[in-house]
């Protein structure tokens, strides 16, 4: 089915886990006075939400994505948990799980963006089998009294598609419903390549462009998480295609994303005619949606900041608000370009003002391999906070 597809397995339906948790008496949320269990090794920590299903014998099956992005299983009965068991695969996000008769069925989005399933009984699983389709999220699955399995997924058209398993066979996908197109941006936001967030309070928007590689992303995400700071990421279509796991991580961690063109054409969009400009914008929009399920609209950043009234009108007509920056950290120039961690810090702090938009980059300098923006980020955040600033995304420019 052309509109539904998979990537190493991705996301989860939480409802079944919550219901199952209640069945075991552990509650939906951990209580503050619960006694902690013995710690497991760091390499056994889950990297996703947990899908929990209970078989007729009362055994619970908890499935999750492990540190190596494979699917792992622990069982629980009468409060006693088993050791971790690997089911294989390479996943992004979390699996889903349900019970059919005496069997437990696990569903996931695979590295080919198709739906994959693995069926087991009494703790023994038979291996992953490709069901098909093209997903942009992980599947949701529920057992049916038929008996059988009903599955719902989000397809590449952003619609919800459904299929079922009955009498040992899968049906084809059928579209259940499709969302309406998002509302057009407010007219007041069009016709401008914004260099500041429209705010009078002391707020700063940290933004990161992704077009080269992802060398700085682990450090950047770690810093943002540790300090509880929001950010906005502008992604190119080629970047999300080359780094799908990292693109998924940005969305899973709750960051806002924008469109940075499909190929980041050099020297920029103003050298292209209208049709190629439209292809660059729409190509990236679809690539981002297919990669991590996010709709990049309405935020767009011109490659190299190369803009004129014609291409600005093209982008606005496609439902996007153009966002430039107040200050470019110049971290992308690297040490080979005369920059340092301290120069990046100084440049950003010197430009501090209400509504400041900071431009930084995820990738490393191609000549020297440095990731100055990532290295400078903790001090930038601390320095701005010391000056009384807080942090926002570009949601104010999203209408």
Describe this structure in words.
The chain is an alpha/beta fold. The protein has 2 domains: 14-177, Neuraminidase (6 Propeller), CATH 2.120.10.70; 187-397, TIM Barrel (Alpha-Beta Barrel). The protein has helices at residues 14-24, 217-227, 237-242, 244-252, 274-292, 309-317, 341-350, 372-386; strands at residues 51-54, 60-65, 71-77, 80-81, 85-88, 96-100, 103-109, 115-121, 124-125, 129-132, 140-144, 148-154, 160-166, 169-170, 174-177, 193-194, 203-210, 232-235, 256-259, 299-300, 321-323, 327-328, 356-361, 390-392. β2 (60-65) and β3 form a beta hairpin. It is globular and about 65 Å long.
Outline:
By secondary structure, the protein is an alpha/beta fold. The protein is 23% helix and 27% strand.
Oligomer type: single chain
Radius of gyration: 23 Å
Unreliable residue runs: 1-36
Tally the helices.
8
Largest sheet report: 6 strands, parallel
Q: Helicity, in percent? A: 10-25%
What's the CATH class of the largest domain, please? Answer: Alpha Beta
Can you name the CATH architecture of the largest domain? Alpha-Beta Barrel
What is the residue-averaged pLDDT?
A: 88
Structural class: alpha/beta
**Percentage of residues in strands:** 25-35%
């Amino acid at each position: 089915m052309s509109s539904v597809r998979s990537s190493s397995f991705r996301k989860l339906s939480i409802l079944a886990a919550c219901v199952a948790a209640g069945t075991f008496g552990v509650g939906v949320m951990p209580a503050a006075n619960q006694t902690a269990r013995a710690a497991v090794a760091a390499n056994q920590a889950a990297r996703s939400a947990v899908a929990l299903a209970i078989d007729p014998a009362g055994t619970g099956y908890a499935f999750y994505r492990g540190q190596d992005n494979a699917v792992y299983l622990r069982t629980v009965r009468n409060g006693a948990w088993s050791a971790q068991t690997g089911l294989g695969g390479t996943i992004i996000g979390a699996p889903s799980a349900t019970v059919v008769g005496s069997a437990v069925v696990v569903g996931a989005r695979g590295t080919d963006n198709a739906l994959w399933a693995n069926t087991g009984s009494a703790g023994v699983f038979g291996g992953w089998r490709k069901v098909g389709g093209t997903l942009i999220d992980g599947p949701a699955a529920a057992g049916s009294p038929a008996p059988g399995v009903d599955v719902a997924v989000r397809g590449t058209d952003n619609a919800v598609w459904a299929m079922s398993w009955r009498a040992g066979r899968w049906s084809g996908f059928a579209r259940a419903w499709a969302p309406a197109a998002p509302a057009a941006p407010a007219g007041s936001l069009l016709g401008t390549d914004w260099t500041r967030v429209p705010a009078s309070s002391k707020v700063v928007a940290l933004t990161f462009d992704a077009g080269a590689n992802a060398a700085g992303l682990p450090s950047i995400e770690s810093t943002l998480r540790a300090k509880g700071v929001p950010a906005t990421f502008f992604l190119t279509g080629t970047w999300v295609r080359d780094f799908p796991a990292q693109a998924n991580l940005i969305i899973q961690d709750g960051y806002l994303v924008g469109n940075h063109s499909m190929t980041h054409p050099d020297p920029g969009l103003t050298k292209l005619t209208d049709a190629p400009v439209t292809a660059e914008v729409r190509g990236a929009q679809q690539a981002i949606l297919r990669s991590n399920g996010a709709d990049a609209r309405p935020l767009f950043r011109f490659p190299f900041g190369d803009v004129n009234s014609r291409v600005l009108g093209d982008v606005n007509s496609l439902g996007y608000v153009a966002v430039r920056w107040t200050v470019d950290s110049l971290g992308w120039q690297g040490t080979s370009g005369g920059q340092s961690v301290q120069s990046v810090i100084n440049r950003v702090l010197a430009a501090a003002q209400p509504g400041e938009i900071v431009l930084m980059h995820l990738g490393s300098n191609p000549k020297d391999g440095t990731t100055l923006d990532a290295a400078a980020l903790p001090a930038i955040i601390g320095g701005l906070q010391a000056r009384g600033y807080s942090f926002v995304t570009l949601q104010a420019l999203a209408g």
